[in-house]
Amino acid sequence: MTADERQARLAAFMTERFGVEADPWPDGGPIVPVEQHVALAAALQAELGYTLYVYCVASHWPDETPKGGDLIPEHYEVATGLRSVGAGSHVAMWRVSVPVGAGVPTLADLFAGADWQEREQYDLVGVVFDDHPDLRRLMLPEEWVGHPLRKDYAIETGHLPWR
Amino acid sequence: MNPWLHGALYGVVLLAVLMTIVAWATWFERKFAGRMQSRMGPTIVGWAGLLQPISDAFKLLQKEDIVPARADKTLFNLAPPLTLFFALAVAAVVPFSPGLLASDMDVGVLYILALSGLTVFPIWTAGWASNNKYALLGGMRAVAQGISYEIPLLMAAAVPIVLAGTMSLGGIVEFQVQHGWLIWWPPGPGLFAFIIFLLAALAEGNRIPFDIPEAESELVSGPSTEYTGIKFGLFYLGEYVHTMISGAVMSALFFGGWDGPFAPGLHWMVFKTLFFFVVLLWMRWSLVRYRPDQLMAICWKYLVPASLVVLLWAAVTVVGGPA
Amino acid sequence: MAVKANIDSGRWGDPYLDLSTYTADADLMELNMGPQHPSTHGVFRVVLWLDGETIVKAVPHPGYLHRGVEKLCEKLTYVQITPIVDKNDYVAPMLNEQAVNMAVEQLMGIEVPRRARWLRTLLAELQRVASHLLWLGTFGIDLGGALGGGTSLFMYCFRERELIMDLFEGLTGSRFHYNTHTVGGNRHDVPAGWAEQVKQVLTFIERHIDEYVAVLDHPIFEQRTMNVGVIDAELALGLGLTGPVLRASGVDHDLRRDAPYHAYDEIDFKVPIAHGGDCYARYEVRVAEMRESIRMARDLIDGLPEGPLVGARPIKTPVQVKIKSGQAYVALETPRGELGTYVIAGGDNRNASPYRFKIRPPSLHSVSALPWVLPGHQVSDVVAILGSLDPIMGEVDR
Amino acid sequence: MAVDDPGRSYSHPLFDTLERFPGLDLATTTADKLLNWGARNSLWIFPMATSCCGIEFMASAASRVDFDRMGSFTRATPRQADVMVVAGTITVKMAPRVKRLWDQMPEPKWCVAMGSCAISGDFYRDIYSVIPGIDTVIPVDVYVPGCPPNPEALMAGLLVLQEKIALKTAGLKTVPAGRPETAKMISPRIKRVGHPDRMPEIDAAQCAQAMSLDLTEPPDLLAAFTAAQAAAKAAREAAEAAAADAAAADEKGGEA
């Protein structure tokens, strides 16, 4: 099966099972309700053969008012990617959006690799993952204050007595 | 001559000669390893880097002497000299040519085995006294390894004793001068005993592939991790002396000691000793190391039974065989 | 669910083991390996709980080289990012450059000229050989120690690696961080006589690979690596392991063949796999890959097409590369596995910077296998397993 | 190096004994030359290799460059090393460990900062987690610039270090080199070790954190640091004003 065929099958599957609009299919995958995050990953892993855990990317979006639009409140977006293995390998990607303070359900029960990836995103971006077995900082020291990849974190923040 | 005076004089001379040889043995090892690895080795300090060992010694001499705060100070300071002492003490009974030895004990071989059994104690002491987990692990490994390999070492050393009918090292060499080297004659037990002895001596001397107590890639530097300056230098020296002396013991036990044509006995003995030193170096720079449990398995599963069989073979040979 | 079942059945080690429930014969010993340790391949720390010499639980701590590259990239323009990502996987910088430039090209819809695609493929394969050589050498040190046979292997491997560094220096003027890829093509064209030099070097290395295999072909090496650090296919997939580590677990997956980019769909190559899942299988796969890469590089240098290295509208200033919006995930196969770049466009500098720039490092996933694999092994196996995973800390921590 | 070094800060059984006998001065002066020769020709290296420069460091140990030629090789434990080669970026998480390992090395010891990350932090210098140059933590003797420096450059750096050690016997001053702080480069908040403006509180806090490895930012240090920076700025402005006044007075005097 080629990557295009897989993409078409994925779109059909997600429309059918999770009510995601197949057209237009945005870059980075469609936005899926948070409650369906784990169910979707489990279905993709078990039924469509997306068994390779690829990435988990969280991004921070502060309050923003686009021109002539309404205020988009501060939120986190977590993008997840799973890959099918072998010929015509294809990445199934989708995103979930959560307000600051709310958590994203963890995928660590399905994919062992989600453990560290989610810890890293928690450490750097500040998204909390609910029911994570071991949610600690991964990159920065335990005593660190703040989450550097948030947009309100200054890049040159000092840390006495070292910098 | 008064045996005490003789022993003292000979000891001083032997110490001076041995230390000089060992100092340049480190230079030789670095050159040799360099050549094996398509490098040059030391070239800048002195002609062909010949002054490198002296430079290292002066450097080590002036380094700060650190004793870790929570170390056991007495034992910590005692371990390095003891290492060197036990290694050197073995040299007392090694005959370099007829009559040229500090003391021709009747129980020379037993004395060597007893002392080489003791060599693990300073290592263990160092590991325990350093109050460092890597050193402790190294010390524990050294003890486990030392105790296990003591048995095949002893059994293998018993083969020349049985064949020559004496425990004096000088006597064993004398026997070989008359009857031929033990590794060849009587055929069989000598050769196998030598292989077992070589493996066990490698393990006793903590050389690759059996250098698990030091194991730089796992245990940083093993028992000597916390030692600075000249104390580390003593460890280093002890290791080389031990290697050198085991080469000498091997040539005395199995390769006829000073026996050889054309040249005086001393030359032959030194030549054979250095030859074994090079063989050990060669193995060191071309093999990777075993894991501790595999090391134990080799000893208890293969070497101990094999050494028993070889010893029995030797006994049978003596009673009814060609000797 | 699946993860927990596998832990409970004892197939995988338990990273979440509660030590108070563990009953040892004597007290457990807590051993801290790193962050400065001779064989942690950089600054990496593993805390081990030992029962005797057997590992009960392992807790790795990365992050000692966390340089905030992702935050820095949000401040820089797309063109400026290229030399920054060189320093992530510093053993294969070429592929890092390619990864970020491919992502930008995809977002902007730029077509790369055929010659540039072939040259990129060639550089990627040469870099793969160099990287695997470095891995083989350091793996030797891990097993044989800094004062032993391992060092000899290390020296041989570095001798050959230097030749590839010379090739890159001849092409780009720099030994290490090349900055030779740019959005839409390559900066440096092949100099005169370079192709001949490449062929000579490849012949030389190919001959010497047989020597390394001969050096390692003895029972000690086999005993140290066989059945040590076994990662089964299910764990490897769940952890997101890719590249040689995944292929050593018996999964036939290679982005070069399965999701072709550059010129990989135009050339013919085999993807070596092994089924053991242990350190020896990973060694086998990497050595086979080295041979295959040399063969590919030879084909590539012979078939290098004529033509321009950059497109019709070359990028002259950094601010020319502007992307209003969009997200893209682009991946390629580095010597360590799938290196992905996730870019959310539309950031600072009037859209000339990314809003969020995430690198998906294969090494981080490899290292995350440690707590699952290490329990039950000995202290000595830690260095063998860590070495066989081939992590690069610059990439793990970024 | 050490015998007639009045500033010797460490204990050594041999030298301590020698110093008790004043008549031995002459002998020790001669011996000092020999010891210095030994020290500079046997530089055992402790590689603080963190990133890219670490690979080039390995290349310098390998066949083509091979610093074993001049008697240098690497030791994995700081206790047996003379030179710490800091090769690569040092992060806030790593810095206390570097400091601690440096403190574990026995005197006399030297530090080589290899590569621009270790020298100044390079382009990571403004990032929250990277320290702007290793010389804000430990004193550096030789800087080897490059990103990363070629193996030959590291070799040259070690030769420079040898010359520097030799100068010590000739009675010449060997203070740590000190990175030139040009006008264009923004000087880091924390001054390098030995800089006249460096606050002693910083030293104390770095030592304390190197021992405890607890990286919490000390709140009182932050307040003191801000106050000291303000005071230093005021003093600098006052000095500039005074200089301007003096220049003006000179001008007036010239006119008169």
Characteristic key phrases:
heterotetramer, B: 323 residues, mainly alpha, 69% helix, C: 398 residues, Cytochrome-c3 Hydrogenase, chain B, 2 domains, three-stranded antiparallel sheet
Describe the protein's architecture and organization.
The complex is a heterotetramer of chains A (163), B (323), C (398) and D (256). Chain A has helices spanning 3-18, 37-47, 114-124; strands spanning 52-61, 75-83, 91-99, 103-105, 128-130. Chain A is α+β, with helices and mostly antiparallel strands and 163 residues long. Chain A has one domain: NADH:ubiquinone oxidoreductase Nqo5 subunit (Beta Polymerase, domain 2, 2-Layer Sandwich), CATH 3.30.460.80. Chain B contains 12 helices and no strands. In chain B, helix 3 (73-90) packs antiparallel against helix 5 (120-129). Chain B is globular. In chain D, helix 4 (95-104) links the parallel strand 2 and strand 3. Chain D has helices at residues 13-20, 25-40, 52-61, 95-104, 116-120, 151-169, 200-212, 219-255; strands spanning 45-49, 83-87, 110-114, 142-144. Chain D is globular, with a radius of gyration of 21 Å. Chain D is built from 8 helices and 4 strands; from the N terminus they run ααβαβαβαβααα. The longest helix of chain D is centred in the last third of the chain and has 37 residues, at 219-255. Chains in contact: A-C, A-D, B-C, B-D, C-D. The interface between B and C is medium-sized, with 30 and 35 residues.
